[in-house]
């Protein structure tokens, strides 16, 4: 069996080349084209609650969300959108807002033109934009509104609300095949065709390709990978990635990362969202942090200094290195909004918090700043390495505070102030 040391095996040193897609400008953000993979999130407030929704949008934007989607499902929600936009502008928050429309989007956009103008992008679902004879006219109404206001549109098909007419058509087509596909493949084809046919119709109505984003979301990892591989091979539209209804906690994180990492490694995806169910009382920003960490650990983006920390073993019976790793991680995340404004390149800094002499000094030397804490039975001293060289040794009860101070001093000295 081949292994990583087998000279006949060629493993990529980094992510493969990104799939070429049409660039879609959304405010100051560009999805697709030569732009980086963009992080998106979604509020879970009642959009009619102007203060609460604006507060959550600002929180998501501060965490690093580059696009924020809002539910627009009622007349009150649609009327609130421009006021939310104004409230954010007063605080200096310019993150683009996306309106999420189902069933009645054509009416809301027509009756609330200020909402249509305030939103940076519309998201519509071909499975519920309209039914029967009304589907074409209601879809066309939304596209015409987008044209009138110069807005891009995400056509987002979803496994849970798939266009039943498209499913029936694909089943009929499958019955005529010499070798019929299995049910799962027929369902995938219906989902993909729903998105592609809707995009083609939008272009017929005059919406340029550079204003169209596609997504085909499912809740299974293998199904999502299969769908996007097929979708990416059949079009050059910008693609939004997300595992829908990923779940709560570690399950949601693992499932999303398992699916999206494969697709991103294959060059697919121009914007991503991690659809986590928040734990009770948990901040909505968790989905933003997970998306950033996924992109950064894959080497696709840099958002905040990464902290390498050992998992611990029988040589590290003290919990101090775990507490220090958490302190350092929390500190750099808290400082990043300030550092991002003041310093150029600080998001690329690497830190290491190690628990014993086995890998501690070596790992610390590979980081910009690293500390090797004493393991069980080792001398009570913690050498600190800066850019590969031993710079000092910390001792005593204030190691955490002193190390955080070393990090702050390094940032101020190492990174050039932004002009």
Automatic annotation (TrEMBL):
E.C. code: 1.17.7.3
Residues in IspG TIM-barrel domain copies: 24-291
Keywords attached to this entry: 4Fe-4S, Iron, Iron-sulfur, Isoprene biosynthesis, Metal-binding, Oxidoreductase
Tree of life domain: Bacteria
Enzyme class name: oxidoreductase
InterPro entries: Dihydropteroate_synth-like_sf, IspG_bac, IspG_bac-typ, IspG_C, IspG_TIM, NO2/SO3_Rdtase_4Fe4S_sf
GO molecular function, one term: 4 iron, 4 sulfur cluster binding
Residues of the IspG C-terminal domain: 307-408
Record: residues binding [4Fe-4S] cluster: 310, 313, 356, 363
GO biological process: isopentenyl diphosphate biosynthetic process, methylerythritol 4-phosphate pathway; terpenoid biosynthetic process
Function field: Converts 2C-methyl-D-erythritol 2,4-cyclodiphosphate (ME-2,4cPP) into 1-hydroxy-2-methyl-2-(E)-butenyl 4-diphosphate.
Protein name: 4-hydroxy-3-methylbut-2-en-1-yl diphosphate synthase (flavodoxin)
Organism taxonomic ancestry: Bacteria, Pseudomonadati, Pseudomonadota, Gammaproteobacteria, Lysobacterales
